[in-house]
Design brief:
single chain, alpha/beta, Quinone Oxidoreductase, Chain A, domain 1, 2 domains, six-stranded parallel beta sheet, 10 helices, ER, oxidoreductase, NADP
Length: about 325
């Protein structure tokens, strides 16, 4: 038997239940991974509240983890028992051990520990496709990043600066402003400011070619107002609630703008894309260009406290849960 955090009905953090479940056996194509660390992400909140629907209930939430392979199912050749591995995009991570489709696993290179790996897979690979594929950030560009002090935000700030871009980070407190400026942001704006006016001032009226927005409903219009003509609004999360566009004409009125709502699962659906994304992420981390900031750790059994901190904006960087 093992322990896991399961959700039997949707609701607040109190719905996260620590309970004993049978230890899984890997099916064909799967590997049994004993977790050393599990990543905390806002998508976990979405599954807990029911904003995102689980395939069945009760559900073990969590989308990323790192650990050691204990056993493999029939037909698995890419990993073997004893391998250090990490993954993202596979629901069921809030457990001491779990079976994972082997095609989702990547080997953790030397020099990267389990906490770093668990913290970087979903957030780091998200950052990779956002600035390397959704909009390929170029040297000399100025970009805007909402929630810049969060897990993805801090990685975006550092990576974009490494690519030669100027980063404008938006945060909620002066303390977070100092944090993002120490990790790649040239400018740190507070959510209480007139963000489009400040962006206009910073860019000399040019505005920005791309906005990365994980906040959602509360910042959507603000993000559009920061874009230059033909600019791209990348809405990759909805911490404040889901976004709806009642009239596509708003995109025309604001400058023939583009909007995308990407997901990591789509961008890493092909094995070669997953391997390339992870390899580039590990490379920038090992080089020191991007530092994975694991600023909070909680016991896995205390996942409810971690959720309260995340939703209360009391976290910065990444948070991991330790079995």
């Amino acid at each position: 038997m093992i322990h896991a955090i399961r959700v039997h009905e949707h609701g607040g953090p109190e719905k996260l239940v620590w309970e004993e479940i049978p230890k899984p056996e890997p099916k064909p194509g799967e590997a049994l991974v004993r977790h050393e660390a599990v990543g905390l992400n806002y998508i976990d909140v979405y599954f807990r509240t029911g904003l995102y629907k689980a395939p069945s209930m009760p559900v073990t939430i969590g989308m990323e983890g790192a650990g050691v392979v204990e056993a493999v199912g029939q037909g698995v050749n890419g990993v073997k028992p004893g391998d250090r591995v990490a993954y993202a995009g596979a629901l069921g991570a809030y457990a001491e051990a779990r079976s994972v489709p082997a095609e989702k696993l990547v080997k953790i290179p030397d020099g990267v520990d389990a906490k770093q790996a668990a913290a970087m897979m979903l957030q780091g690979m998200t950052a990779q496709f956002l600035i390397r594929r959704c909009h390929k950030v170029e040297k000399g560009e100025t970009i805007l990043v909402h929630a810049a002090a969060g897990g993805v935000g801090l990685i975006l700030c550092q990576w974009a600066k490494h690519l030669g871009a100027t980063v404008i980070g938006v945060v909620s407190t002066p303390e977070k402003a100092e944090l993002v400026k120490a990790h790649g942001a040239e400018h740190a704006l507070l959510t209480s400011e007139d963000i489009p006016a400040r962006v206009k001032q910073i860019t000399g009226g040019a505005m920005v070619p791309v906005v990365y927005d994980s906040v959602g409903r509360d910042t959507f219009t603000t993000s559009l107002d920061c874009l230059q003509p033909f600019g791209l609004m990348v809405s990759y999360g909805n911490a404040s609630g889901p976004v709806s566009i009642p009239d596509l004409g708003v995109l025309a009125a604001k400058g023939s703008l583009y909007v995308t709502r990407p997901t990591l699962n789509t961008y890493t659906a092909k094995r070669e894309d997953l391997e390339a994304t992870a390899a580039e992420l590990f490379e920038v981390v090992k080089s020191g260009a991007v530092k994975i900031m694991v600023n909070q750790t909680y016991a896995l059994k205390d996942a409810a406290e971690a959720h309260r901190a995340l939703e209360g904006r009391r976290t910065t960087g990444s948070t991991v849960l330790l079995p």
